Amino acid sequence: MVAAGSITVAVRVRPPTSWEGARLPQQTYDNCIRTDGALSTPAKSTATNAPLREVIQIVDDRVLTFDPDEKDPSRAFVERGFVPPGTKRYKDRRFIFDRVFDYQARQQDVYHGTAKPLLSNLLEGYNATIFAYGATGCGKTHTISGTDADPGIIYLTMADLFQQIEDKREENIIDVVVTFLEIYNEEIRDLLAEPGTPTPRGGLQIREDKNVKVVGLTELRPRSADEVKEIVLLGNSRRTQSPTHANETSSRSHAVLQVHVTQAPRTASITEQRMMGTLSIIDLAGSERAAATTNMGQRMVEGANINKSLLALGNCINALCESGGAIRHVPYRNSKLTRLLKFSLGGNCKTVMIVCIAPTSLHFDDTQNTLVYAERATRIKTKVVTRNVVNVDRHVGQYVEAINRLNLEVSELKQKVAGKRDLEAEKDRRKRREAAAEVERAKSDMQQKADQMQPSIVDGASCAGKIAVAEAKLKVIRARLAQLDTQASSSSALPSDLEAERELLKALAGPEEEVIKAQSALNVRVQRSSNSSAMFDATLRAVGERRSDKLDEFAVDNVKLDARWRKAEMERVKAEARQEVLQEAVTRQAEVVVSLIGMVSRCTVMLGDASRILGTAVAEGRDGMEATVKALSSSLKHVAEGNDEVFKTLLGHSIAAYAVGAAPQGPSSLDNFKGYPTTLGIGRAASGPIAPQHGKPRLSRRSSSYGASVPSSPLRKAHKSPRKSLRSSMASAALPYRRVSDKDKGKRKGVQWRDEAGQGDIDDGGVGAVGPTITVFSSPDTTTIFSAGASTVGSSSASTSTRSMSGLSLESEWEDEKTDDSLQFSFAQPSMHDASSSSISAVRKRPRASRLDPSFLKSKSRGSTLGSLAEDDEDCAAAQGSPTKRLGPLSDRNMNRASSPEGSTRSRATLG
Ligand SMILES: Nc1ncnc2c1ncn2[C@@H]1O[C@H](COP(=O)(O)OP(=O)(O)OP(=O)(O)O)[C@@H](O)[C@H]1O
Prior knowledge:
Elements: E1 8-13, H1 18-23, E2 27-29, E3 32-33, E4 39-40, E5 43-45, E6 56-58, E7 63-66, H2 73-80, E8 93-96, E9 99-101, H3 107-113, H4 116-123, E10 127-134, H5 140-144, H6 153-168, E11 172-184, E12 187-190, E13 206-208, E14 212-214, H7 225-238, E15 241-242, E16 250-251, E17 254-265, E18 271-283, H8 297-323, H9 336-340, H10 342-345, E19 349-357, H11 364-377, E20 389-393, H12 396-490, H13 496-516, H14 521-544, H15 553-620, H16 622-651, H17 656-659, H18 669-672, H19 714-720, H20 725-733, E21 750-755, E22 758-763, H21 805-808, E23 810-814, E24 823-827, H22 854-859, H23 865-879, H24 901-906
Helix pairs in contact: 6-7, 12-13, 12-14, 12-15, 14-15, 15-16
The protein binds adenosine-5'-triphosphate (ATP).
Adenosine-5'-triphosphate binds near residues 14, 137, 139 and 140.
């Protein structure tokens, strides 16, 4: 129940039309000095000859002033001319309404302030009426219907109504019926009747019961606000409109849209309680003063009818106002309009009257009348408004209908429940899909980052590997340099060979030191890589910790696992890159080592041969000596050059560049030769244990003098010993050489030997060495035995293949440093080699073939590795077309042939 009260009256001021706007005074800003001395620029309208002025001044949202007073007398004079004293120049009348909307108010504002509060009443079963009243052209149709782009109260109300109906549909069956009619010249016309249908368009009758009803109206059941909008647009297009002087599209009829809302609860009972509410939205035709119009003919008749009905409405309003609660006759029956609005004005209804007015003096009188009319309406006292609730007793037949409806409802609900289940399942599926998509997104983010960062990270790992290699090399080089430095500091100057070695090592250390510098290009790349790595880790962390509504626990674990896998994968790739670099370095180093081993071993053999040739030459006498020495000198020179080239190829540096320090007259490096470094304190170079050789006696540790790591090696002693350097050099350069240590003195000692040609044992027979003894055994058929020092060399345990030194009568002997260094060679063989003929065939007793001798090499070509070299050389010689064009004793020995083709070419120079 809504308490008794009054109808709500709201005033809306339309904006000036463009025509009016052009005739209104423009606002100007006059500068003036205010009394407080400040410069003021108040805005004011200039009282020029503008034909129109604004007659409405909005005070606040409920109050307006009609024809406000002009405070400026000069302007007042200009506007109104002379006014006798005592007369009021301006109406300056203040009106108070329930709401006042200025011309800036939007349709929404008007809707919220007027129609919206009625909606809830309507759905609770109350009647409600909204009607727009005003002079022609003041904005009634605009307010009620609006345009497609800017819909008015009808559309906005319907949109809200259908929304609220939707919310209530679960519990109620709600029926919405719409009718649309016009009252034109006191005739009721159906605006929704389609042409050609039996429904009569005009001449409809009003039936009054508890309610007012127009019989025979087309009833439409829209299901949305848009459908209502279409209905209204359709009806408006059928509404009688004509252009008048005041309005191009002046409505010449009153249009009434009625929305009947009936609600019944879905739960069935013996009596059904129905709620009915009717919302009437009325767009009245504009009032017009006949005197002010130039309308003639039909327009004049229309105008008269409009005015008649509006007058009847006014009279009803007056009667309702004046009654003051007393029962007084209200002349509703004077017009169709008032008959229709009977219950809206004085009955069981909540009513809102929207009064539209124009803002300018052009509609001065109309506006004034309208405002007076509206003000009177505010005084209408309405009755207590009650709900339209009907209790309908059901007939038996209705039960069947109710049962059917309930069955329908049950099946609908079943469907809904099933649908809900489906919905749940679908929801689950959707969630899973979203989670999977989210996981994919996370994975792809990580993949993208991995793709982005991997090249830099891998590059960093490679660089780190290279730096590690450089550090390892440097460690070894520095260790050796430290040894040399210690040696240099203990003696006044290093021998030239060690000096050259030191310089070479320094040169080799240079680039490695550059590499490990903090600012080196490699280190910069390592730094860059570690930044990339950090970024990659951060991305993995961020993605792994990413939280989202879409991610369930399983998905989060999935992402985390993927992140861990990617990290591990990146580590693997990094390790691979590093390993690759290290492997390359090891391979490279192995190549260098192999090349150098080859070179050194062949040089060693070559030195042995050179020594033997020299010995033979000495035995031959002075003539042979000179030629041999010359040839040897030339050969050694070529060999040295070849070696240099190999050095350059392998290490990028030539030893020759650093060996120039030795003065031609100075002590020879041969004399100063201190042996080879055995260990640099960093372990044996070989990466694995030395495998014993099958079928051959295993060399004792002492005899494996090549093993650089054997600390007790006699070779180590050799370069500590002040004994003759040549002996040392021979001992350290040739594998089978063995020095009998002091410990062995007095004992019968068995010495194992091995070289390319064979192996065997030497027994010193327990004679004991007087001095250091170096005994060299070579291949059985070409045995050469050097006995250094006064030693007696016993027969070899493999005596069939070895001969004692005395048996061969080939001996080299020198004193130790306590005596004058002298080199004594006694050669049993009268002639070893003739340098000019390069042949050893002249030897009386078949001598051991020199490894430098092509015939030896040829003879060994099948079984010996060295033979293969000789074969190569021979082939080359043959290729040169002359076997007789044999080179000098060492000239066919290219020590570096395998590694350096250039060196090979160079070494082919002829002797002499
Ligand atoms: N608030 C407003 N904002 C903008 N334009 C408006 C407004 N009110 C009215 N108009 C415009 O003024 C003109 C007249 O309005 P409308 O047709 O609504 O007047 P009316 O009161 O319905 O006239 P009639 O009684 O002759 O049918 C129309 O062009 C309309 O667009």
